[in-house]
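call fold(seq) -> tokens
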Amino acid sequence: MPSALPDGEPVPADGALPASALAGAADRPLGFYLHVPYCATRCGYCDFNTYTATELRGTGGVLASRDNYAETLIDEIRLARKVLGDDPRPVRTVFVGGGTPTLLAAGDLVRMLAAVREEFGLAPAAEVTTEANPESVDPAYLAALRAGGFNRISFGMQSARQHVLKVLDRTHTPGRPEACVAEARAAGFDHVNLDLIYGTPGESDDDWAASLDAAIGAGPDHVSAYALIVEEGTQLARRIRRGEVPMTDDDVHADRYLMAENTLSAAGFDWYEVSNWATSEAGRCLHNELYWRGADWWGAGPGAHSHVGGVRWWNVKHPGAYAAALAEGRSPGAGRELLSDEDRRVERILLELRLKEGVPLALLHTQGHAAARRALADGLLRPGPYEEGRAALTLRGRLLADAVVRDLVD
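ret:
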């Protein structure tokens, strides 16, 4: 089941933000994340805030139904307009995630996007993305999304091998994600991403190589490749604990990452964040860059997180509780925190170090500077950016990114 929300102070009933959060807003990009919390089945590795029909049965009644979900989420978009007041910024990116957003009718997703456009306006060349399960779309659905303003789509491929998909409890068949890329291109999508997962129990080097080759051969302009993280409370964690499947070790993860880097770079993909590769700068996911660079975004939907001007808040998790709050004219916010200058400094280091451009050395304290010099000497940071005042990871540094970050923030 989904993991627990963090603690925090109460969110005002009207969702009002402190004046400090909106100060200087015009200088920061604004994005929207729209969360769709429904899935046809629960994948064995998933601890996201998502729900199947069985999990929702009897726990929220009509309020938890996906049939009227779009209208409920639009209510939060309208709340966002009230909270942000006369903030003049048009929205730079919209990302619809889940869950499986494409379990909703294409018209529902288009109406949610239209509400953002009507309330805030979209910036010129705004990036508008939805995630999709390969089995939940067809050419007509994709054409409706494209006609409604979506210009980027991300398909969950995970693996090209059936036995790997089975361990992950993925329901699509091998070959379907690749077909989806062609269908999306035919519908007019400029940018298409495929998500891959490596390190699944029972996956071999040959399996991973086949997945990379299949993804590249499909013709996306973006590939995300993530190491499998086994979260407590998931079905996969229980299977590993019972000895039904083996746990993949860190050395295997490192080897698979190197395979990804070598294969993708040979095919014309360039890394721009530790787990993300694109064929051009235009192919990068601008929405995720908002997160990594600490910009502003409003997260609408159950369990969605938001950040505006150093204030971070999160919504109640259950779709029924979320809908009930909005129906009563209340913010669905469950808690929030005001980030201190030190919190924001640390978060910048944590997130920006993962980017190819790296993080300014000026953000480091004395011990962090010493750690950066050691990392440079150990081949974990690139000399060129370091001389220009930035800590930027080498390939070896990417493999040890978490350890490098821990040293730099001390």
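The chain is about 40% helix and 20% strand.
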